[in-house]
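Why does this matter for the project? Reviewers at the last site visit asked to see concrete outputs rather than summary tables. In response, this paragraph embeds two records directly. Each consists of the residue sequence and, immediately after it, the corresponding structure tokens. Nothing has been edited or filtered.
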Amino acid sequence: MMWRAQREEKLIAFLQGRLRDYSGKFLRKVLDANNCRINGQVERFGSRQLRRGDVIELSPKWKDLPKSDWTFTTLYEDDFLKIVNKPAGWVCDPKNVEKGFSLVHRLDKETTGALILAKKGHLDALFKLFEERSVEKEYLALVDGVPEKESGEIRSFLLKKGAYQGQTIWGSGPKGLTAITKWKRLASAKQSALILLEPETGRTHQIRVHMAEMGHPILIDRQYAKIFRSPLSCSRIMLHASRLRFSFQGKEIDVKAPLLPDMQNVLREAGYPDRFFL
């Protein structure tokens, strides 16, 4: 499906004008899944200002996206909290959380996995666990290229470096917030590697920045890389919060979040063993 813009307007308004049977929310999902190109370049932001003569093209896959609302699988629940498996595209914003719950921490929009929601009256105590670094976190990331080393630790200071399409770009510098990430290469295939990450700190975009600065950006993180070696086709950033371990109210909580189908499909396409799918 292809059109040519006849006037200046925002991309999301252009699409809504031509696809009237679909909601703005669904069309933003189409953009999030890298299904739109402008003049041959992938565009994910509905706020993009079109110019007269721009060529807008939608991938044939855009109609395959589900129209239904976000699906959250509950991984654990007690009287104090609930842990869910966050889907890609859902924004960690207090206004998006169901009544009676509060966000304890955040995952990036395209990142999937274990997310803690506090029940009424327990937010401060749970938030304190993160402040004290008492929550052990594990992530799985599919990165571009194969690191030479099997494991390592990255330490840097993160600070704001600029902006891209309204989002802050972070990077390492001589000053900033301390960021520490331990990593281990689990397997590799098709010029990519599956990496287990254990961030000791929880800075914004920490894992994404550290992987990109190591020369192995997460597939397909266009915010921190423009060129990728791997031929694998990804509809979003391949980053998943796979495990949380912590103690709360006398309980030892250890929760694993299974990979969601889209990331499983990419791993299968690359030939990674099923044992990594949790």
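We now turn to the second protein, recorded in exactly the same manner.
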Amino acid sequence: MTDASERIRALKIDREAATRAGGSGRLWLLVPATLIVLFVAWWFLLRPAAGSVLVEIDTARQPPSIGAASSVLDASGYVVARREATVSSKLTGKVEEILVEEGMRVEKDQIVARLDAATQRAQFDLANAQVVAARAALVEIEAQLRAARLERDRARDLAARQLTSVSSLDAAEANFDSLAARLETGRENVKVAESNRALAQDALDNMTIRAPFGGMVVSKNAQPGEMISPVSAGGGFTRTGICTIVDMDSLEIEVDVNEAYIQRVVAGQRVSATLDAYPDWQIPAEVIAIVPTADRQKATVRVRIGFLERDERVLRDMGAKVAFLGAEAPAQAGQQVQGVMIAQEALQRDADGDFVWRVKNNLVERRGVTVGGSRDRERVLVANGLAAGDTVVRSSEAALRAGQEVRTE
């Protein structure tokens, strides 16, 4: 009976063991299922489309101005000041007072700083005292000379009447001549003393620093208590300037033009300038001069461009882009410009003429265009064939064909 019970228990199914075994089996089945889902997601979502070409695109835009559309050459440069100076002192001294700050406008000869002038003031007082002493000595000599003149005249009168000896007359004459010579020496001593006083006055005046011309203070280089010198000294602890002043009326643009295109630029040529800080602001300008030398390393020629209108928004060292206008440029700045501007790299040419690759719905199509103006600019005016807002291919990693699928990243 016991054996029969044991056999029956041996045939009983262990439900807990079956549950543990089944759970482990299902976990192993989830691993390949997860891998399959990730592969499908990559295939349909992350994998680049078959046959698509990576491209860089550009957007056709309306020209910002008639000048930008009609230029014969584009260049970039910086706003510079033809007249600027770092104001310093002629003598070494300690800064006592600074009267300017950055952004302050100063006039010509306005005081910008004062140096400690105690030593120079004492030297001036000494020189002035020497002038007073020299003049007093001159007055004394003049009095002695008058007395010597009277004595000489009496001696001459007595000698004429033979009432005195010749030696007495000679002594009177010699005394008068000696005092006359001393008088001339005294007068020269007064001049020397006055010159020394003028030098001392100049040294004293040099302790007051003045603006050499009117302009704007763009930097303040020293503080009260610091030493300042016209030359660098003191192991780096001595300043060489008080402040830097820029004449804002002398601001102009300097650009480097490739020497291969310098023949398109002439003095007096009209220019449309745009500051990087204000890309929508077209500033009328003109070519002042072409610097008559070339940079052999960069193969460029420097061109100076002057503003025809002054504005406080124009600051030194601002980046600027300029468009040199041709003779056919319209005179009316507000005239509507026909066409759009695209990057020069997007324009292509073959036996059939000029064309671009226009992108629409990630597919490219060949679009014939008509170019207006110069072709070797950074952005080219397309008169016909494109509309503002159209997307064109600027560069591609492989050759394109009509209907080719493209991607940008």
